[in-house]
């Protein structure tokens, strides 16, 4: 911290040097669009802080809250403000609700600043709320309520600096990507470790939104799409909630594209290049996993859209494009509320039998697009010692392949999962997500499918945990006694697929993969060589099949054959003395 403060003070005292260290960004083409009419004049009493400085900067947490409090006080018949949680550092998480009252209306939930340096949505939402309250757009609330979270990652928002996002054109002071606990909230939806995410999921449970927008800014490669977005079901691919996916793809997408184009923006699918240094190779269209907002929404049947404005476009242009997106989403959620609710209900009535736990890339493209790119060439960099890409600023259109994935491994869902009372952290996650379960009040013994893992390896620390990678999974029937307080989680429920993603041992985003059970990796009892060696010799004499298995192992594995401890451990694992809970995943499958 002292080093960072010294650097900031030094840069302030030497502006020429600071300017020389600014990352040079690609050429920028001028832009004009109809959405510029959304900006109010300098003398307007409800000009937002960002408009007042011509979008050079964005207000901090305190100034944002103060402006919104004043706006709410000016229009109490339409607006209210409410806290829904606390950050790790104790800041209020809050939302503004825009409503004309009356129950049963669809709810559009909009969150900005999950990555707080990507803060376009906050300033766009402030402008839209202003226009609803004071500039004649209250009709947008005739059929729908708007719930707007201006700053989700509030602690990261206050770790602001001009040096935080080198690939982004403004605002001048940008927040930090992760929380005060260094957690990326858009990797935390399913495991839900962060207090901010726990608060957001509780809010989702409370509101049951008809549509959920997650507002971001993306970098990567240069292109012409200033407002890109994505959802599960785009072009019919990968939706776990197929009816919702069809509505998003066939009803929302055409209307949204038309609205953005009318306003002077260029919409498109979220651009994730196969290779950022060689965009001609194509772009990726992959299935969303439940650690992300779109994947989580897909698994729990909440229509969810990721919006990604392009970091290389000016802040002003990006904020205006986000405003248009949110306004059109509000209009659609109202006009199409009944149709969308029917899609949600249809998906919640489905009971999938399988869960894909592993995907593999497809060799051939799943489709091609007329990609609105930016011309580029390559040059030899003296710094990197290799060829680097250079963007030239000139728009081009090129045929680009889009690559996807296909299922590589699936599991058949059980009738239910049993979670022992000794796993309170997992039971709390079930409660948080709203997954239905039954709690037993007396011990119960039941025959279950239990899983033992092989060759466990710990991954590099990520998102506040040390993930676990298993070399294999062995399923077997086992009589298991669960103490009072344990829970049975039926798969026959609307959130059965979400439960599967959380509890199935092979799930890449489940509690086993996130290492919620480090105790299962520890052995606590051993046997001395003076005891196991003669016992092993007796076993070899008495069991011909075991002797053949041992001799095969010796012949196939010279390192094992040369390691006396490994040889004795091999026998120990085949005795009744061995810990039968070692590497046993404690959640059972009924």
UniProtKB/TrEMBL annotation:
MF (Gene Ontology): metallocarboxypeptidase activity; zinc ion binding
Cofactor(s) recorded in Swiss-Prot or TrEMBL: Zn(2+)
Signal sequence segment: 1-18
GO cellular component, one term: extracellular space
SMART domains in alphabetical order: Zn_pept
Sequence ranges assigned to domain Peptidase M14 in this UniProt record: 57-333
Domain of life (superkingdom): Bacteria
Gene3D superfamilies hit by this protein: Zn peptidases (3.40.630.10)
Entry keywords, A to Z: Carboxypeptidase, Hydrolase, Protease, Signal
Family under the similarity heading: Belongs to the peptidase M14 family.
Protein name: Carboxypeptidase
